[in-house]
Amino acid sequence: MRRLIITGLPCPPEPWEDFFGKHKGQRVLPLLEVLEHTDSADLKGMSRYVASQIESFEPDSIVCHDYGVPLTLLALLHLQRKGRSPAAKITLFNGAFRRLDIFRSPIPFRIQLMTPTKAIREVESHGGHVDLRLKKYLPRIRAINRLIIAYSLADKMLSKLGLDEFMGYGGKPLIRSPMQIIASTDDPYIPYDSIEQLRRDFSPQRFVKVKYGHFPYSVSSKTIVPLIEEFERTQ
User: Fold this and answer.
1) Percent helix, strand and coil across the chain, each rounded to 5?
2) Residue 164 confidence (pLDDT) above 70
3) For 137-154, how does the pLDDT look when each residue is reduced to its tens digit (9 = 90+)?
4) How far apart are CA 4 and CA 53, in angstroms?
5) Whole-angstrom Cα distance, residue 152 to residue 8?
6) Is residue 72 one of the residues assigned to a domain?
7) What percent of the chain has pLDDT over 90?
8) 146: part of which helix (H) or strand (E)?
9) pLDDT of the residue at 27
10) What is the dihedral sign for C-alpha 203, 97, 35, 108?
């Protein structure tokens, strides 16, 4: 089993490796690596690097979280359009793709003013770990979040105009790969409505609720890892 774990902000690889255990056929792709190999503040542009890593690693299972969710989904949609969809099971933790209510999820605004020290304290208070090497990318991370604000406002306008079906969100699964969502109902950063939107857009075969706050590795691995391993074994 080759498993690719695509993480988000602000996690280093180590807590994920501890959570899943270190395996020869497992790779953690952190946000830091994506930033190091791209120069875009647009998630769509950044997702091209993620797509290249999916193709080169050839995973049987992809697990993604936070920023890793939209980066992975955009990468998979890109590969699918090119006729190069991976034969992988997809597990999504909490993350947003569309309809992120930035007024209920104010991090994109707050990160514009938040100091690194304050951000670290807040993440650690929720059981997360911070990759300190991200500090030099803070201006770009702020730019990414300004684009998220702009996209969220535009997305809301498209919804009000009734253009969802025209844009391809007509109720059919957008990605053909088997998919599950392991959703947390007590996430302090991502409103649960965004997870339900993810569910409607991508029609996963399996949807499980587990309270893990925002960071899955902040709870016992015995709570979550068996759900992933079971899904990976399904035909």
Assistant:
1) 50, 10, 40
2) no
3) 999 999 999 999 998 887
4) 9
5) 19
6) yes
7) 79
8) helix 138-160
9) 98
10) negative
Q: Could you give the number of structural domains in the chain? A: 1
What's the maximum distance between 2 C-alpha atoms anywhere in the chain? 49
Question: What letter represents residue 73's amino acid?
Answer: L
Residue 233, domain member (yes or no): no
Entry pTM: 0.92
Percent of the chain at pLDDT exceeding 70: 92
In whole angstroms, what separates CA 106 from the centre of its chain?
A: 17
| pLDDT confidence tier of residue 166, bands split at 50, 70 and 90 | very low
What whole-number distance in Å separates Cα of residue 182 and Cα of residue 210?
7
Q: Which residue matches tokens 């091209």?
A: 48
Q: Of 182, 190, 187, 173, which Cα lies nearest the Cα of 206?
A: 182
E strand or H helix at 183: strand 179-183
CATH of the domain at 148: 3.40.50.1820
- Residue 127, amino acid: G
Does residue 208 fall inside a structural domain? yes
Residue 102 belongs to a domain: yes
pLDDT digits (tens, 9 = 90+) for 20-32: 998 889 999 999 9
Residue ranges making up the domain that contains 196:
3-228
Q: How far apart are CA 7 and CA 12, in angstroms?
A: 8
Residue length, the chain?
A: 235
Q: Is the pLDDT score of 173 beyond 80?
A: no
Q: Please give the helix or strand (H or E) that residue 18 lies within, else none.
A: helix 13-20
